């Protein structure tokens, strides 16, 4: 599975590394201060992320696999992989912009009109950042149950409803939204996918604070929000295929970031320093965490190897998603356990500036965001193992006649 | 249509090789035949099957070079063959002879190693006997001391938990120089199975298709393998390779367990639906797949590291063994549960795989032993890194 770079790939890697060295700082091994989730800090982080996106754009690295016509590099998935590997060694603010690009970009390239594709370069430059307006209070795992309505009025679509769990809606300039445009047909047949301007009257964003204290999520209330009809992607009532395509891309981005502060090796280092590596049970739990990290890496290498051969990944992405989420959380809990009584503290008073406590509380974003673990297990059962689906009652009835909880 | 899991990291030639072996074991060692041997005596050995497997298919010497009478392939091919043995539970000593004895002898080397490997390649089965009553898999824990009388070496004492003992024509025994400790003075010695002072006690074994035995030596004549005082590194490399290969055999059984459970869940109807359409069962099946994917990936990485002499060979063997053992046991447990009432009958095969999963999870060290080893290996590597 492990494979050396070809000479061309090695040259590309060197080029990436030189550019990163000139434009970014290497990651440090320790936090200087606790992670800051205050609104002010998040606004600063957002600006830094935009600056880094612009820097990458100017260097020609913003989207390696995108065609040059849209501001990309026209490169290969392997080159993108090499860039991501190298970038993970540097202290750079990646995250939301990259994820949003990775979702809406491919969807526009695949389903968008030529006019809609004109948004791509500004997206890549970080000038316009996009948020994903998908989930609703009554449409979580069952996304096709969205109720936010879209009415056609002249050459405009008028939107009313509520979205939730919208990451970075408070900062985003644009949004891509999933709407109900026809409630009289079965649920999947009356959905549209539209592009909207977030900076207009009628868009009200209220932050949702997570248990970790961050404010990445928002509720978005939409009252008579307008967008031109030519901002509907793939035609009125034909938005479901675009939606599922976008979600497939979302999965590919989760779990990509590496943080060297929160590895099993870092735990083994600290256990050695505190003398606790002398305890058998400590060695066992840290050995287990280390083995899991290696197994996860080996699974990722399998996906890479499929990419390198130009094949579809030969291990289902949901396997990685579930393991990354469950093992990541258990590792963080083990790390706070290893801290003993100090594990009850957090922030600057906890060992390592509370980086592990922060990880423990980040569980929800991995185990629910991007599809719950249960939805992914359904996917494994039905897609990978070809088990029969649950009987469904919502396929053929008009949407307006379906039962709901609210 | 029954579930068929796609292989990964296999070239077309290797896939063809796997297909040939799968057909061979399905035809020559169906589960009815495995049960016949299991219920017949306590040897756990089908001599006729072994003869065909070693002489016609060349499995006994698959990873032994051609000039020593082997097939000249590598550990990856041996791991494929072991996977099919794990899948079929075929009662042949491929693991004991080719993986355990074969790899340790090859790694220890010395002037007689070639002749020993040649006889293994020819199908004269061998095995490794090292664990003693304390049950510690670490060869440093061996207490049996050699007795030298002139040019002769004699061994006395008991070796426990010996796999493939009844099939073995020769035992490779780990013993030590009198008064020595740990790796110093550790040595490898060959003992002929039919020599005077050699007895085998069959043990009532939890794994019915691969019973264990105690080897009793009473002044048995032994021959040193390799050079005096230099055997320890080879013994450790050989055991790491055997550990990686064992995980490949385990994964073969796990694949069968997964396929059986998923096929059952798709076919068995209750409440007018296939039970696999219920999330309670579907999610169990998904968990079987998750355990299987992690395990086969780890086993493959460990085997490739051994095949390539990677410096991370020991580390990756422990990653694989610590992961595959508990995963295999979970899979066998849950596969039985998915099969409901029949899943715990004597007649259904679920328990045979469960028994193998439990025994293999312990063989060559359970997960806690390998986890501890990992923590120590990583810590010492970090210290070396810091010192540089």
Q: Please identify the structural class of chain B as seen in this structure.
A: alpha+beta
Low-pLDDT runs of chain B: none
Q: DSSP helix count of chain B?
A: 11
| Neighbour order of strands in the largest sheet of chain A | 1-4-5-8
User: How many separate domains make up the residues of chain A?
Assistant: 3
Total domain modules of chain B: 3
**Main sheet of chain A?**
4 strands, mixed
Write out the CATH superfamily name of the largest domain in chain A. Answer: Butyryl-CoA Dehydrogenase, subunit A, domain 2
Q: What is the second-level CATH architecture of the largest domain in chain A?
A: Beta Barrel
What separation lies between the terminal Cα atoms of chain A?
A: 50 Å
Report how far apart the termini of chain B are: 58 Å
Number of strands of chain B: 9
Explained architecture:
The complex is a heterodimer of chains A (about 400) and B (about 400). Chain A has about 400 residues and is an alpha+beta fold. Chain A has 13 helices and eight strands. Chain A has three domains: about 5-95, no CATH class; about 130-245, Butyryl-CoA Dehydrogenase, subunit A, domain 2, CATH 2.40.110; about 260-370, no CATH class. Helices cover about 45% and strands about 15% of the residues of chain A. Chain A has a four-stranded mixed beta sheet with strand order 1-4-5-8. Chain A has a four-stranded antiparallel beta sheet with strand order 2-3-7-6, with no helix packed on it. In chain A, helix 10 (about 315-340) crosses helix 11 and helix 10 runs antiparallel to helix 13. Chain A is globular and about 70 Å long. Chain B has three domains: about 10-120, Orthogonal Bundle (Butyryl-Coa Dehydrogenase, subunit A, domain 1), CATH 1.10.540; about 125-230, Beta Barrel (Butyryl-CoA Dehydrogenase, subunit A, domain 2); about 235-385, Butyryl-CoA Dehydrogenase, subunit A, domain 3. Helices cover about 50% and strands about 15% of the residues of chain B. Chain B has helices at about 10-30, 30-40, 45-55, 75-90, 95-110, 115-120, 230-265, 280-305, 315-340, 350-360, 365-385; strands at about 125-130, 145-150, 150-165, 170-175, 185-190, 200, 210-225, 270, 275. In chain B, strand 2 (about 145-150) and strand 3 (about 150-165) form a beta hairpin. The mean pLDDT of chain B is about 95. At the A-B interface, helix 8, helix 9, helix 10 and helix 13 of A face helix 7, strand 9, helix 8, helix 9 and helix 11 of B.
């Amino acid at each position: 599975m492990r494979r050396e770079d070809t000479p061309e790939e090695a040259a590309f890697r060197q080029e990436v590394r030189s550019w990163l060295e000139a434009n970014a700082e290497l990651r440090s091994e320790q936090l200087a201060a606790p992670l800051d989730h205050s609104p002010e800090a998040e606004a600063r982080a957002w600006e830094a992320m935009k600056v880094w996106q612009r820097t990458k754009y100017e260097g020609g690295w913003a989207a390696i696999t995108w065609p040059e016509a849209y501001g990309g590099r026209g490169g290969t998935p392997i080159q993108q992989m090499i860039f991501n590997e190298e970038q993970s060694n540097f202290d750079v603010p990646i995250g939301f912009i990259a994820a949003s690009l990775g979702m809406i970009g491919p969807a526009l390239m695949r389903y968008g009109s030529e006019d809609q594709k004109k948004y791509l370069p500004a997206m890549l430059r970080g000038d316009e950042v996009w948020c994903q307006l998908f989930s609703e209070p009554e449409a979580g795992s069952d996304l096709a149950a969205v109720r936010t309505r879209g009415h056609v009025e002249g050459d405009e679509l008028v939107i009313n409803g509520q979205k939730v769990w919208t990451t970075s809606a408070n900062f985003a300039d644009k949004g891509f939204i999933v709407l109900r445009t026809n409630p009289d047909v079965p649920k999947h047949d009356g959905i549209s996918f539209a592009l909207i301007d977030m900076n207009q009257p009628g868009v009200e964003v209220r932050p949702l604070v997570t248990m970790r204290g961050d404010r990445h999520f928002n509720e978005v209330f939409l009252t008579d929000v307008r967008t031109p009809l030519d901002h509907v992607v793939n035609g009125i009532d034909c938005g479901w295929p675009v939606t599922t395509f976008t979600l497939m891309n979302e999965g590919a981005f989760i779990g990509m970031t590496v943080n060297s502060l929160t590895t099993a090796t870092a735990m083994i280092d600290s256990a050695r320093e505190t003398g606790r590596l002398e305890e058998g049970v400590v060695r066992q739990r840290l050995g287990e965490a280390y083995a899991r990290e290696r197994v996860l890496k080996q699974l990722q290498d399998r996906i890479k190897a499929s990419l390198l051969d130009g094949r579809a990944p030969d291990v289902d992405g949901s396997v990685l998603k579930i393991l990354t989420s469950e093992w990541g959380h258990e590792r963080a809990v083990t790390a706070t356990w290893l801290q003993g009584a100090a594990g009850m503290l957090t922030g600057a008073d906890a060992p390592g500036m509370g980086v592990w406590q922060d990880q423990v509380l980040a569980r929800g974003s991995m185990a629910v965001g991007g599809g719950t673990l249960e939805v992914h297990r359904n996917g494994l059962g039905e897609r990978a193992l070809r088990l029969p689906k649950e009987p469904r009652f919502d396929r053929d009835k008009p949407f307006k006649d379906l039962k709901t909880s609210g | 249509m029954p579930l068929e899991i796609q292989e990964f990291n296999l070239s077309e030639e290797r896939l063809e090789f796997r297909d040939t072996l799968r057909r061979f074991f399905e035809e020559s060692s169906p589960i009815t035949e495995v049960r016949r041997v299991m219920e017949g005596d306590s040897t756990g050995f089908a001599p006729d099957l072994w003869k065909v497997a070693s002489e016609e298919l060349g499995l006994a010497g698959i990873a032994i070079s051609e000039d020593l009478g082997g097939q000249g392939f590598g550990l990856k091919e041996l791991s494929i063959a072991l996977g099919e043995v794990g899948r079929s539970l075929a009662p042949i000593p491929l693991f004991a002879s080719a993986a355990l004895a074969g790899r340790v002898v090859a790694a220890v080397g010395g002037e007689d190693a070639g002749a020993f490997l040649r006889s293994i390649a020819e199908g004269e089965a061998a095995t490794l006997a090292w664990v003693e009553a304390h049950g510690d898999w670490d060869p440093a824990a061996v207490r049996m001391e050699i007795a030298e009388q002139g040019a002769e070496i004699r061994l006395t004492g008991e070796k426990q938990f010996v796999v493939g003992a009844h099939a073995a024509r020769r035992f490779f025994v780990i013993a030590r120089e009198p008064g020595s400790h740990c790796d110093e003075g550790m040595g490898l010695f060959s003992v002929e199975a039919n020599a005077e002072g050699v007895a085998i006690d069959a043990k009532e074994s939890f794994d019915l298709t691969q019973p264990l035995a105690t080897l009793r030596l009473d002044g048995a004549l032994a021959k040193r393998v390799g050079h005096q005082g230099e055997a320890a590194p080879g013994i450790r490399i050989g055991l790491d390779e055997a550990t990686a290969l064992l995980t490949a055999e385990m994964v073969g059984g796990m694949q069968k367990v997964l396929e059986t459970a998923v096929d059952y869940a798709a076919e068995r109807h209750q409440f007018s639906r296939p039970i696999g359409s219920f999330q309670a069962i579907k999610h169990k099946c998904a968990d079987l797949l998750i355990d299987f994917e992690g395990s086969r990936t780890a086993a493959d990485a460990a085997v490739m590291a051994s095949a390539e002499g990677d410096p991370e060979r020991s580390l990756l063997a422990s990653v694989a063994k610590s992961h595959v053992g508990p995963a295999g046991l979970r899979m066998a447990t849950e596969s039985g549960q998915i099969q409901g009432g029949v899943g715990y009958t004597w007649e259904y095969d679920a328990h045979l795989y469960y028994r193998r999963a439990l025994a293999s999870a312990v063989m060559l060290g359970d997960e806690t032993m390998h986890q501890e080893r990992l923590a120590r290996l990583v810590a010492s590597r970090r210290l070396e890194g810091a010192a540089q």
